[in-house]
Fold this protein.
Amino acid sequence: MTEKLGMNRDRVLGLFAAVLFVGLFVFCSGEAGAEPKGKSKAKVKTPAAAKQKTVDANKAIAEKVESYSITGTVDEAFGRVEKIGKVIVYVDWDGLREAGVKKTKRIAVAGTNHTLKQIIARLVTKSASRGKPLSWLIHENVVIITSQPRAMKLRKRLRDIATAPKATKQTKILEKKLEKTVAGKKHKFNFDAIPLSDVIDYFRETFKINIHVNWKALESVGVDKGTEVTLKVKDVSAGKALDLVFSGINATAGQMDSVYWVIDDGVVMISTGSVLNKTMRTRVFDVSDLLHIVTDAKGPRVELQTIGGKCTDDSGGDSGSIFEDDDKAEKEESTAEKRKKLNAALIEIVKNSIGEDLWQPIGKGSIKIYKKQLVITQSLLGFKLMEKSLQP
């Protein structure tokens, strides 16, 4: 009886996540259809869940599999993932069909000492059609396999849902106000061997801003409440003054041991690079203006002709056009090739602004361009270093 209840619970949880996924995607697409009659078409196959209690999906994908060999259709392959990892897998077949993938497509992967995450990634790559990548994510303890565009829409929608609409609006207003405060009006600052805690209190009270200090993290790098701050400047913003305060403290510290301030969820957070590097954020930037390609327009060819016929040179040959055709031999670069190079150049510029260590595969950050939008997933430290690199 207990086993049966566990089985039903897992099926219900899996089905709930699947229906939520479909509903969220329809909402994201802005399409409303008639309510289907009878049973929902969104089903979750849970052979492993039917036999025993499912495990935490995030923990399961980190576990190594000593040896595996998966051969069969795409449908069968992801069914095997359920059995191997004891996780619920939902395949969004609508999304896969849009990406040109059929259930009956045959794939094969095998290996040793790979994590379940690596196995899923290999299966997703093998399943994808050329030029139409697939993606996967975990939500509500369910591994979701879908197309890359649908995955991006779902992730964005889930981020929106994670925070109540009212709170999101208030946070955005607060962050804009905070950014305006720290970067706006110029002030005079005069600190002469003042304890750091007093300096932070001064910023907190003078500018009416929320400041959270991770003193435990600061103490781990030798900075405490009594660390003395000396600064004498004028005509600088509050944000610039904070930068100067911590640049003095960080004089001999490395990147991860340095102290930084960042704005996150409407609060000025002060911590070390190593701690800030653990908190990831995804931000989307419209770069359509930077990716605009100006195509070369071909002008009319000009022919030099006499009234009676073509002009001839001293050798007696026809001169014809004043433009020779040598340039035709050179391969013209297509608009698509130009755009590809421009995309790569923009990504390289952003990556180089903070160094390779914070980007995959060494670090955690990732960057891609999707429909003229720059999608960056990076740590709070990474975004802070980008911000600093853009300062004049």
Summary: The two ends are 69 Å apart (CA to CA). Residues 353 and 388 are 9 Å apart (CA to CA).
